[in-house]
Amino acid sequence: MRFTDINVFGVYVAPFSLMMVAAWLILIGLRRIAAPFDLLRHVWHPALFEFAVYMIVLSSIVLIVAH
Q: Considering the entire predicted model, what is its pTM?
């Protein structure tokens, strides 16, 4: 698949930036699921862990869209 620019209200946006926003929204949902169980207190560095999960989600989205 070719990644072509997407027209968003007259502004051409790279598809990767929209995938980044989608991954961020998914990460917010995952954080809301994990918050009641207090799962981040078991992690050594919560910010680094969240960044790693974000990268995993973003990579998965890119692979799914490219397939």
A: 0.86
